[in-house]
Amino acid sequence: MGNEKTNREIKERVKGQFGKNAEKYVTSETHAKGDDLSLMIDWLKPDTNWWVLDVATGGGHVTKKLAPYVYHVCTTDLTTKMLAEARKNISEKSVNVSYIEADAEKLPFLDETFDIVTCRIAAHHFPNPRMFLEESVRVLKKGGKLLLIDNIVPKDEKLDHFINKLEKLRDDSHVRCYQIEEWEGWAEDAGLQIEKSRIKKKVFDFPVWVRRTTESEEQVQMVEKHILQGEKKMQDYCGVVAMDKDIKSITIDEWMVLFKKE
């Protein structure tokens, strides 16, 4: 019962955060212009007969990229306002896109419905990523594929803690950036095999990035303090660029992986 209550509270925080900042996620350069969007087409080689499920769409950038290549995209998000902003971004003229409010960990679709499931830069907000993977496998057709893109942390306890605390200070709806080894274990248990993967270091314009989710300059200062008081090892790993204690940019690892349902 306690876990259920905690999970509900987490998801309410996610709804609140993304509801307040929906427009920022549509226009965010990190989300709208990442090279992973083009690479996604190369990896998936989409087919005009495919049914696609885009989980936790955010600004709708994956749907917008894939829709011209496939038969239909079911675009989902936990936050209604985020979904409405995504529809504006994708264009209401896209007749092969439907918009559905849905929980990534309890998908409202029948078994073996989709050829492809996608989830981009969202899973660090999921309290139960294992459930998300199990649900993805359930709704995928046999031989179907899951494309997952998200921020990750290294297999180092101190760095893991430092990065996740940084993310949590910046965004209270953050749950956890997971390690690749954790994802691999959950995926194997769910019946998924890795076909392709890559790790990319993403550089963020810190003043823009930190203010996308913070609610006050005091909160911004808390994030800055955490970074600047971190050990050199932590700062180096995060690629901190600062001038006179004024942080200009930081770097975060992103994992892009293509799974296949066995």
From TrEMBL:
State the Gene3D superfamilies in the record: Vaccinia Virus protein VP39 (3.40.50.150)
Q: Which GO terms describe its biological process?
A: methylation
**Key words, A-Z:** Methyltransferase, Transferase
A GO MF label: methyltransferase activity
Note the SUPFAM superfamilies from the entry: S-adenosyl-L-methionine-dependent methyltransferases (SSF53335)
Domain Methyltransferase type: from-to ranges: 53-147
Q: Which InterPro entries match?
A: Diverse_substrate_MTase (IPR051052), Methyltransf_11 (IPR013216), SAM-dependent_MTases_sf (IPR029063)
Q: Which family does it belong to?
A: Belongs to the methyltransferase superfamily.
Name-wise, this protein is Class I SAM-dependent methyltransferase
